[in-house]
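step 4 of 6: structure.
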Amino acid sequence: MPPTAPLTWYLGLSAVLFAIGAIGVLVRRNVIVIFMAIELMLNAVNLTFVALARSLGSMDGQVIVFFVMTVAAAEAAVGLAIIIALSRNGETMNADELVTLRW
Amino acid sequence: MSAPIFLLLAALVLAAALTVVVHPSPVYSACALVVTLFLLSVFFIGLDAQLVAVLQVIVYAGAIVVLFLFVIMLLNLTQTEPRPTAGAPLVAVAVGGGIAVVALVATALRRLTVPTAPGLPEGFGDTAALARRLFTAYLLPFELTSVLLLVAIVGAVGLAKRRP
């Protein structure tokens, strides 16, 4: 029986995933890809919650993941509706050129 | 989850996540996001979170990413972008910042004393245990999420509606 993966491996993996998502938000210019990178970050945090719930023997972490998924679904629905409204107004999908919502 | 399987899955997850961020075509990014979410649900099963793993596949991979793909197809963003990323200075700063965050977490994890439960309670991670927490200790947040979803539905319909 090979050894099981320790908690720190899960936390390290989720840190790397979060960093990849954050880099994606900063670097990419397509608003839809920026949204996907945000989902990546949310999922990295979910992995942390589930790993710590397992390690602590408490269900609370998994309940929080449930709420995070709900918030992510709401966020995706509203965000994609904003993107559709933008495209209907003839705006680009490039975050550098989108100035409608700026002051 | 045994260590070799963890390392294999972690390598696959990181490759898929990098594809999401790096690939110039949004469709490929969305498909790589599906792969990432599926692999993460495998991690959840390995961590005794069966219900969360199933919800991950149904809600994330099934609903949210399909919504992404739907919008990509609707707006005809299938072609590759000419300039998918920001300028080189910002890319360098972002990658450097990401590496710094990972190094910081790695240093913190090295001196972490891992909390371990004496043993998992009976039925850990199954639907009944999660529902019991959800409908007792977390009842108020649970009800508030229904309000949040209602607001999101109204907001999405109002935003995407064609103006008269």
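step 5 of 6: annotate
 - The two ends of chain A are 61 Å apart (CA to CA).
 - Chain A has one domain: 7-88.
step 6 of 6: archive
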